[in-house]
Amino acid sequence: MLVILPASLMAQDPRAMLHNDGGVWLNTNPAPSSSAIFVHDLIRTQKDNTGKIDAAGTTVTVEPETIVQYEGDELFLDHGHLQVNTWQGMKVRVDCLTVIPPPHEWARYDVIDVDGKVLVLAYQNDVKIHYRGTAAWRSKHAEFSDVTVYQGGQATREERCGAAAQTVAARGPLLSSPWVKVAGIAAVGLICLGLCRIDSPVPVSPSQP
Question: What spatial distance separates the first Cα and last Cα of the chain, rounded to whole Å?
Fold first, then answer.
């Protein structure tokens, strides 16, 4: 028991705590004033309400009208505003970009995702905006290259870079496009219909030999 019990308690140990004064939802239910949160838990704040995530070496303020998913060493921001104060290098991901603070150094930064734009503000220490994807792809798209936001500065980026990357990667010869194929099939059908009408035999009167 002395060996099994501590192991079982460690398995149930929460990764972080969520604190709030109301108006905050945890997954599909209203969150209590203090609640343990685990990986993949979803947090949503209503208008005029905030929440606070306390993890090891990290405190995050979840501003009003924000939707964020807790992922252990990073937060997946769907929409809204996060204020991050971290020693453990807590990252924030928005679509294909990730805001990365330096590890084992205090960093304080904000990430705001509203109306398709991501605004990153660095208050203490520098943070990096990193884009997923191959280096070759990023080298062809300067707008999606990694950038450092220096202390006291800010940077704005498009939110939907992942969709743009997918579109570019999926491009091929024009004739291989499914829309072109559909248009071609429709054109063939119209041509066939016209030819069929032209080639149809003219009815012969029964009185003719």
Answer: 108
Instruction: Decide which of 1.10.340.30, 2.60.120.1440, 1.10.10.10, 2.60.40.10 is the CATH code for 4-171.
Output: 2.60.120.1440
pTM, entire model: 0.69
How many other β-carbons are positioned within 10 Å of the β-carbon of residue 157?
19
Q: Mind listing the pLDDT tens digit for each residue in 71-118? A: 999 999 999 999 999 999 999 999 889 999 999 999 999 999 998 899
Written as one letter, the residue type at 163 is A
What are the angstrom distances between the C-alpha of 205 and each of 161, 197, 201? 69, 19, 12
Contact partners, residue 58, CB within 8 Å, separation at least 6: 16, 84, 85, 86, 87, 88, 90
What residues contact 10, with CB distance under 8 A and at least 6 apart? none
- Alpha carbon distance 45, 28 (integer Å): 12
Rounded Cα distance, 202 and 180, in Å? 36
User: Domain map of the chain by residue range?
Assistant: 4-171
